Here is the input.
Amino acid sequence: MPTAKQYRAKAAEYTELLKTASLPSEAREFRNLEQSFITLAENDEWLADNIGKTNSPGADDDWYGDLPRSRQEKNALGRLGTADPLSIGRSQPKFSNSLMTPVPGEACCKQPR
Here is the structure.
């Protein structure tokens, strides 16, 4: 992970590029990138100076023990419940037209064979 010093060096590169920009769009882009790297450096410095003010669980801490198990079992797409990729979309309603009106009862529940 880059350090605040590396972020500041990258910001300085964009400061120099800003001086040579010939188009307003280039200047705007370099200025935005410069500011982004300065912000990253400031955030990194703040974190280093205030590590005691941040919450970070230890290896033995179970921060989510009081939540129902299904809330803990998120799949790779961030959906709650099963991580089975084949089941994604099966419980979502089917729509009959572009007006987003649901298809009546059985039509949305039938699975292809």
The mean pLDDT is 74. DSSP finds four helices and no strands in the chain. Residues 24-49 form the longest helix (26 residues).
